[in-house]
Amino acid sequence: MALPAGRARHISRLQVLGVRHGRIKVLGLCRGGGRGRVPRHGGLMRSGPPRWLERRLNARALARWQTRASEVEALGAGRRRALRDEAQGLRAVLDRFLARTDRRAMQARSGLALPPLPAGSDWHWRPECLTTPLLPRGLAAPDSGARLCPGTALWHDCPARGLVLEQVPATERTGLTPFALRLEVFGFSGSYLSLALDLPQGMLQGLGRSHVVRLETAGQAEAPIRVYARLNIGNGPNVDEMTLKLADFPAGRHSTQVTEFDLAYTGINERRLEKAWLDLIFEAPRMNGIVLEEILLSRHLRAGV
Q1: Per DSSP, which regions of the chain are E strands?
Q2: pTM for the structure as a whole
Q3: What is the pLDDT of residues 143-167, one digit of tens each?
Q4: What is the 8-class DSSP label of residue 286?
Q5: Domain range summary for the chain, segments of one domain joined by +
Q6: Are 154 and 197 in contact (CB under 8 A)?
Q7: Would you identify the CATH topology of the domain 114-301?
Q8: Predicted confidence (pLDDT) per residue in 83-136, tens digit
């Protein structure tokens, strides 16, 4: 039901404070910018906002930020910091929306996001950093635990932080994934460097000690380097770990590896599985560049089970 014309002329502000299940939740129709009560006749509470209203609200928001940008020099330091924090939050949401709607991202999700399920497997997964464009696409001199994207973090103890982790386009030669990860290491004086990937909850559903978790990796390095993979499974207060060495990355040559974690050698409590993550640990990475072109996890039952 539309608002009466007479009442609509006096409404200068519409407070829309929440959206739930695709329906807009109108909490107040206010005059003069103040707080008001929800009109009894319902107005827009029955469904989402009309397109004309959505366009008007978006136009007002854009105009408000344009005004703020032109008046930034006149703002006090406290107000400027508050608006900057608000703008950064909006920018993160908008950047993520643009990445999700990017044509290349759509092609990645529909085509190269995942290959066909390996024979005998009941689950497989690739990290988002190899399938979807990231904004921003890299980390320079990151603190330990800095996240490249949700679920992907770099851990180290190097005081100088001589590291760069970035998403780069994958080479056409491999054609495995739309994107790759490049890790540049300069003067590294720390004792450890690892890339941590949070695994989705789907990996834990129905997981048991009769499963084998298969890791397929591919990439190359500027100088020879040893890389280890550690599978971590949190169950209750405990975390079961399995660490396996990948095949060596020879200098300047593309290398592929297949590593299998047999969960029969763990003590996981199948009824208390909570989280899982994978660490790729780089040994003595100083003055090296490593490109990871494939990280594919899958699971299958052990033969004979």
Answers
A1: 13-20, 23-30, 121-125, 138-140, 146-149, 152-156, 163-169, 179-185, 193-198, 211-221, 226-235, 238-245, 255-262, 273-283, 288-301
A2: 0.65
A3: 999 999 999 999 999 998 999 999 9
A4: S
A5: 5-100, 114-301
A6: no
A7: Jelly Rolls (2.60.120)
A8: 888 888 887 777 777 666 655 555 544 455 567 777 788 999 999 999 888 888
